[in-house]
User: Which sequence fits this backbone?
């Protein structure tokens, strides 16, 4: 979300018109060439993931399109039908470019949907805790503290060991791991904001608590949330890949990048390194580009993130 | 102090109790232990008898207390795969994990502290940017991918180091270790480096932030005015002060590394606890899963407790009240 809004006309200098907050933000963001490159890369990755089936040479999971004659070819090989396999094929003759694009769809789909759910759950919990304070606050924050005492990998592993594999289960595990970060971040800005005059003014107008919290308080707590959401999507991609690699994440019917790497791993010692290596590169580019965008957002929006 | 300690211990017990509830409900109540524990081809009377003996015909809460009582007595059932007590199976693997995590910890501190000092002291120079970029990569790259790259480069392409396994071990005081044989050291090097990257990145950041903060403080200005050398200021005065947060975080990191060892052990086929839990999940070896989960959670609670107490001992300014933030 934040990535898309920042992709607007950044080149326009403040002289091009009245300086709006968004223009200033875009100009600040564009000050770093690295960040802009990362943003362009990430948007490209998103588009590839969205329109993947239209772009790839084959549907890698339609067995009718695979040719066993072409199995195990190294990158750049020419297949029996004259098509070029840029990144080689796996042991079933599956084009790795197509497999990676389809894997990217699954990886990003899982990460973004769990990110959105965690954002909603965590923000609600955090802002309620911060606004109302007192007993509600201490109960919610004690749960958050308790959970953050354990590393994310471990919590996700425990949950998946208990629940089993599946798309819904891994999304649940990722949400369970990530909501606490949102809750803590929102709560810390809500505690500061609720003491300000505009909240007192809203109270004097005897507005409802829900209206004050979501229409007045929440918009003023957004900056750190945007940064956190960006970074958390990257860490969700990494965590899902790790769990799928370990064999406790997604089922084999949903081959994400992590599963592709895991499947290729068994062929690595026999020299077919490309089955693991290129999905890994795709994963890496995704994670690093999101993180770089997040870093720049942090510098521009400058929220004091406690992590 | 006394009140704080009692409150923290009670809290820890509560967390452990909640965890046991979650694990019990997840593993025993949602899954079907009958299908796993009893041969389905046995005659019906034998199955009923076994269900009765295992207590599976009783209400859930009674089963839970049964399970809890057994767990407190150290009985977490026999592993289905190894046919030995689950705790025993895990404890056999523990030395391998411990030596891997300790090696990673040593590598992370030996390289992380000096790099952090350099990056903090010359924070405006290019060398600092290089170190900080490296530490960001250490944070954001998935550790299993880095492990694969290490194997591709050092084992497959260059052929310097073995890719998997633990290598030869020697027994010291009854504990097998691979740190004392050349073959063992060759085997542990790659997984230890892989596991060290994340904590190293964290130590670098912490040390750098600490150095930058302390260089602004009055006592450093005073030391400068006194004419002390930069080296003495940095290594004697600043280092001592920044060690407090670094040491505490290292304690917490130890738990983190044990959790991350699951990933590294799977990549390098290192025969430790982490690989065991992944294998057990694949093979549905429930007693081992339960024992591992309870053990790790217990370990974490213990580490957090020790770190909290140590922190208050190291830094008397930290108030031991329940109001943490």
Assistant:
């Amino acid at each position: 979300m934040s990535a898309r809004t920042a992709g607007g006309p950044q080149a326009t200098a403040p002289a091009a018109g009245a300086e709006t907050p968004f223009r200033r933000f875009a100009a600040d963001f564009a000050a770093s060439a690295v960040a802009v490159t990362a943003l362009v890369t990430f948007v490209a990755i998103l588009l590839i993931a969205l329109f993947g089936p239209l772009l790839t040479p084959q549907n890698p999971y339609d067995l009718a399109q695979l040719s066993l004659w072409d199995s195990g070819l190294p990158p750049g090989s020419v297949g029996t039908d004259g098509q070029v396999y840029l990144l080689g094929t796996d042991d079933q003759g599956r084009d790795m470019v197509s497999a990676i694009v389809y894997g990217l769809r699954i990886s990003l789909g899982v990460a973004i949907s769990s990110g959105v759910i965690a954002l909603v759950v965590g923000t609600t919990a955090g802002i309620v805790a911060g606004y109302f304070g007192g007993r509600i606050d201490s109960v919610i924050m004690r749960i958050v503290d308790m959970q953050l005492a354990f590393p994310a990998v471990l919590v996700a592993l425990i949950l998946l060991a208990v629940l089993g594999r599946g798309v819904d289960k891994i999304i649940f595990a990722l949400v369970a791991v990530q909501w606490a970060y949102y809750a803590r971040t929102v709560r810390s800005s809500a505690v500061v904001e609720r003491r300000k005059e505009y909240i007192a003014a809203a109270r004097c107008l005897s507005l409802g608590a829900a209206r004050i919290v979501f229409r007045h308080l929440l918009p003023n707590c957004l900056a750190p949330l945007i940064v956190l959401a960006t970074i958390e999507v990257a860490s969700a991609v990494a965590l899902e890949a790790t769990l799928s690699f370990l064999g406790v994440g997604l089922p084999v019917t949903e081959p994400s990048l992590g599963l592709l790497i895991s499947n290729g791993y068994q062929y690595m010692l026999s020299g077919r390194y490309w089955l693991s290596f290129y999905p890994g590169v795709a994963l890496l580019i995704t994670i690093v580009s999101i993180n770089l965008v997040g870093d720049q957002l942090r510098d521009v929006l400058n929220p004091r993130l406690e992590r | 102090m006394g009140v704080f300690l009692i409150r923290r211990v009670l809290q820890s017990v509560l967390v452990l109790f909640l965890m046991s509830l979650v694990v019990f409900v997840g593993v025993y109540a949602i899954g079907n232990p009958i299908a796993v524990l009893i041969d389905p081809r046995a005659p019906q009377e034998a199955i009923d008898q076994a269900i009765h003996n295992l207590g599976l015909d009783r209400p859930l809460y009674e089963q839970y207390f049964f399970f809890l009582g057994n767990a407190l007595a150290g009985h977490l059932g026999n592993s289905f795969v190894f046919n030995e007590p689950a705790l025993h199976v895990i404890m056999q693997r523990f030395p391998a994990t411990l030596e891997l995590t300790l090696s990673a910890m040593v590598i992370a501190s030996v390289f992380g502290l000096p790099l952090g000092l350099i990056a903090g002291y010359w924070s405006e120079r290019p060398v600092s940017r290089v170190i900080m970029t490296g530490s960001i990569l250490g944070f954001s790259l998935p550790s299993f991918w880095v492990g694969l790259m290490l194997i591709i480069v050092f084992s497959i392409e260059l052929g310097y180091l073995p890719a998997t396994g633990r290598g030869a071990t020697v027994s010291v005081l009854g504990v097998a270790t691979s740190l004392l044989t050349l073959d063992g050291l060759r085997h542990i090097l790659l997984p230890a480096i892989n596991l060290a990257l994340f904590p190293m990145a964290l130590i670098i950041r912490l040390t750098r932030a600490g150095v930058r903060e302390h260089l602004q403080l009055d006592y450093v200005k005073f030391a400068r005015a006194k004419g002390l050398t930069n080296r003495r200021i940095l290594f004697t005065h600043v280092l001592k002060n920044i060690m407090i947060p670094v040491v505490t975080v290292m304690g917490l990191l130890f738990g983190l590394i044990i959790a991350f060892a699951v990933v590294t052990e799977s990549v390098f086929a290192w025969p430790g606890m982490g690989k065991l839990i992944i294998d057990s999940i694949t093979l549905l070896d429930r007693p081992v899963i339960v024992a591992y989960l309870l053990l790790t959670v217990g370990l974490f609670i213990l580490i957090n407790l020790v770190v909290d107490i140590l922190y208050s001992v190291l830094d008397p300014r930290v108030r031991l009240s329940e109001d943490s933030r």
